[in-house]
Amino acid sequence: QVQLVESGGGLVQAGGSLRLSCAASGRTFRSLTMGWFRQAPGKEREFVAAISWSGHSTRYADSVKGRFTISRDNAKNTVYLQMNSLKPEDTAVYYCAARGGSRLSSEHREYDLWGQGSQVTVSS
């Protein structure tokens, strides 16, 4: 069973950058599609980005396109989310997630495994 552990969240000023990491245990990591989601207080969990098992295909929410980059290192069993030009509206708990299959789904219900979440706060 794969377990996911996020790190790298924190407090940053608007316009700043943060990089989230999600370390996975288990030998099946490299076969999984990985995603990042976020949830702000009082709001539903929303899709941020997804990446294929090979890292060759990515997908982004329109709200983060051009500012965020998802990547993965299968040798290190880790997926990353580089967040640049952060805005106050990016403030949320960020979750990494994993699913079998090749589709870069934006639906959180299609992801089977979840990390514990990492708080990102962007001050204005």
- Structural class, from helix and strand content? mainly beta
Q: Which percent bin holds the helix content?
A: under 10%
Between the first and last Cα atoms, what is the distance in angstroms? 40 Å
Q: Which regions have little confidence, pLDDT < 50, spanning 5+ residues? A: none
The ordered H/E elements are EEEEEEEEEEE
Number of DSSP strands? Answer: 11
**Count of helical segments?**
0
Principal-axes shape call? globular
Q: Any idea what the radius of gyration is?
A: 13 Å
Largest sheet: 7 strands, mixed
Mean pLDDT: 95
* Strand percentage: over 45%
Overview of this protein structure:
The protein is mainly β and 124 residues long. It has no helices and eleven strands. The strands form two sheets. Strands 2, 4, 5, 6, 9, 10 and 11 form a seven-stranded mixed beta sheet that branches. It starts with a strand and ends with a strand.
How would the blueprint of this fold be written?
Elements: E1 4-7, E2 10-13, E3 18-24, E4 33-39, E5 46-51, E6 58-60, E7 68-73, E8 78-83, E9 92-99, E10 113-114, E11 118-123
Provide a compact summary of the structure.
It is built from no helices and 11 strands.
Overview features:
124 residues; mainly beta; 7-stranded mixed sheet; 4-stranded antiparallel sheet; 11 strands; 0% helix; globular
